[in-house]
Amino acid sequence: MSVHIPPQSPSETSEVTCIPADNPPPKRTPPTVHYSWRNFHPNAKLHYIRDVEAANTHIASLQGPVGFDLEWKPTFTKATAENPVALVQLANADTTLLIQVSAMQEFPSNLRDFLESPDFVKAGVAIQYDVKKLYKDYGVSTRNCVDLSLFARSVDNDRWKGKYSSPLGLARLVETYENLLLPKGRITRSNWEDELNTQQIEYAGNDAHAGFVIYERLAAMALSMEKIPKPAYYSFDAVRGRLCEPSGMHWMSYNPDYDPGPPPPPKPPKPPTARDIRRAAAASTFSTISSPSGTLVMATSARYSEHQTIIPQQSFSSQAGSHIALSSSEIQSPPQPYPTRGRRFTSPPNRGAMHSTYSARTLSISGASAHSNVTHGHQNPHPESTPDHSWRGRGDASSRHRHGRGWYRRSDSQVQDPS
């Protein structure tokens, strides 16, 4: 791929200086003057074209490199498909062409040949998506494209740090290298399919011309480098909507000579919100079971009752009939009840203290299986009036009762606290 780097006169070359990495460039005052293509090339002409024949006539005499950009009518709803390309912008030192293809019956043939020619550079900022969209809408490939963001990072690495593929806006490049303002604003979201007004024409002309000016400046900086970066680091072809090199191999933004600099400092953690606190309170708790065979750590999923606030103690019963006392810190339940399927784990009205049930996973203690589905609650002032809410392991089919999400068997006696 051939990328045109124009020759520079001694006076023009003297303006480009390479600043060592240990001496960063001094900060300049923010610019106050707006960018205008007339200030750079007073004798240049701008043509706004809505006719196919006029477009073919002007493009026949157009030479590269050119600044390149596209505009289309925006959509403001997610469900609406994106509108096709409406305006093609091309600019060099002598001519700026604004070709409104949405107003034409067919795509200009000379414009198609110019875009598909590898002899002319088309320079713009982050134009990878633009050239893909151009092929999707009109079936036009674009060759010898230059991403000015990658070009700037390749030839001015001391100034630009960070990820190599991170885009640098055209307005930022104009402010950095020309000390001028390139305003964007709401006009970028205007209707580019209707006949353009004066503000739209001025903006579109400056946008394409600024791409040409920045490319000329970066090309001059590349000439002053000891090791000129390879064009494949910042230029590509878009053939049938696919980004590739001239050889046909897949292209990606990569420069092995680029120094991204030190990584950015990590962002401070955000303080927890009230929703995070409620979720943490309802999350799984970890309990430790002590037995003669050893210590096990078990995660239990809590199902809370509306009236349950604190669970001071937990008791487990195994199939072997032995009881394992568990002493743990008090567990505070969330203010809202935990959602469950089926009926809640509460006692009937006026029948004693409310209870909540913890459904525990199968435990393995010295090779013996212990299914624990146990009851926890406040101390009941009337234990004789409290129905049995302790549940043991799975029994035979005749003694199973439907409860919650599984089949369980009622125990024959109330589980007693061994302590």
TrEMBL record:
What Pfam families does the record point to? DNA_pol_A_exo1
GO CC terms = nucleus
Q: Which UniProt keywords apply?
A: Exonuclease, Hydrolase, Magnesium, Metal-binding, Nuclease, Nucleus
| Origin: domain of life | Eukaryota
SUPFAM superfamilies this protein is in?
Ribonuclease H-like (SSF53098)
Answer whether the UniProt record assigns the keyword Transport to this protein. Answer: no
Give positions of region: Disordered: 1-29, 255-276, 315-355, 369-419
List the PANTHER family. Answer: 3'-5' EXONUCLEASE, 3-5 EXONUCLEASE
Name of the protein in question: 3'-5' exonuclease
**Species name:** Hypsizygus marmoreus
